[in-house]
Amino acid sequence: xxxxxxxxxxxxxxxxxxxxxxxxxxxxxxxxxxxxxxxxxxxxxxxxxxxxxxxxxxxxxxxxxxxxxxxxxxxxxxxxxxxxxxxxxxxxxxxxxxxxxxxxxxxxxxxxxxxxxxxxxxxxxxxxxxxxxxxxxxxxxxxxxxxxxxxxxxxxxxxxxxxxxxxxxxxxxxxxxxxxxxxxxxxxxxxxxxxxxxxxxxxxxxxxxxxxxxxxxxxxxxxxxxxxxxxxxxxxxxxxxxxxxxxxxxxxxxxxxxxxxxxxxxxxxxxxxxxxxxxxxxxxxxxxxxxxxxxxxxxxxxxxxxxxxxxxxxxxxxxxxxxxxxxxxxxxxxxxxxxxxxxxxxxxxxxxxxxxxxxxxxxxxxxxxxxxxxxxxxxxxxxxxxxxxxxxxxxxxxxxxxxxxxxxxxxxxxxxxxxxxxxxxxxxxxxxxxxxxxxxxxxxxxxxxxxxxxxxxxxxxxxxxxxxxxxxxxxxxxxxxxxxxx
Length: 486
Hints:
Its cofactor is Zn(2+); Co(2+). Helix content is 30%, strand content 28%. It is an alpha+beta fold. Strands 9, 11, 12, 13, 14, 16, 17, 18 and 19 form a 9-stranded antiparallel beta sheet that branches. A 6-stranded mixed beta sheet has the order 1-2-6-3-7-21, covered by helices on one side. It has a 4-stranded antiparallel beta sheet with strand order 4-5-23-22.
């Protein structure tokens, strides 16, 4: 771990972030980071609880003179999205994140940084450890599995917390105060198909799509970023009619909440059409690159000759699959009619696997309006069912409805203006925050979300702005001072 990270200001926060990032913490494999946080709380002599699903709660009494203030919950999630560049050798299950300073930014070498939501966790750890910052009674809530299902928030039972205000430290623009978020649902389409022996007159080709930025499938879904799964399907579409193209394998995307950066396919084509295939792929690739050149300047599309695959997909299923993939909605479905510039409903075609007689298509649909979420989910369901897929809805979680009359919102808005000489941007976001879920069992809590500036979350380009962390840290400390009386 580079010492230059630990020397950054505020040192209390960056040192805790460095400690945290030394602990592998993939979603659904949080055993080590749970133990790490449990040991941390106990080392401070504070009441530390691990609930039945793995959430960690650490309680710290108010500092002298703050005993009459409302108790607060400071909340962040322990897990992080694991993404790496194709040429990066890294094992997220065993290695800590390798960080470095790049001007005003902290980055990781070829992987996600874990600033989402590690900077929030580190903030709370620094407050818990220090005795120099005045604060009310704090219940620190560290949830698990936020990134792949929010099962930690869903499993948190009522009665464990008593704070009247919840500060969620999971927003990624330092001038923004979050008051609402989208809910989400996983849409999974699957079907089996018959594999056929590849005829002798066919030859094999590998197609790869890579170099896309990727990114957060909620916060960045409106930016016009390329989706590797949609690009790959565009290259394969009508391939049978033109070159006798038959699909053997496809492997595209990775995590449900990350815009897919890469896809690869193995296909077989008629040998007599090889020259036409090469020419057509080159031409279509140029069209796609030209369309995406502003947002995706590093997009690469490669085709290379390989051994002819032994098995290919049943032709009827292939034709239905490529048409369904073309028809399936990806990106923004509807903008909010009530909040300017807010995406209301969207879909990310996150994962596509075709292999050994099985098709798997995984999507994450988001919306701040429940009925619109179901409408888009049913649109996708109908699209995939038309081609014979079975479609499952799962992982449904609610959105967080904005409360513009929130007392803590008014306090924080004034603090931000006093510190920075300008008003903050009060907004709902299209990401999935845990506030909506937590509010089901703790409806009395006044909730707010904020954080430092983080760019490229859920991608290897993830980076945290050093100057923004300094600005955010001052904001946090001032908020703690001004929590109202009971």
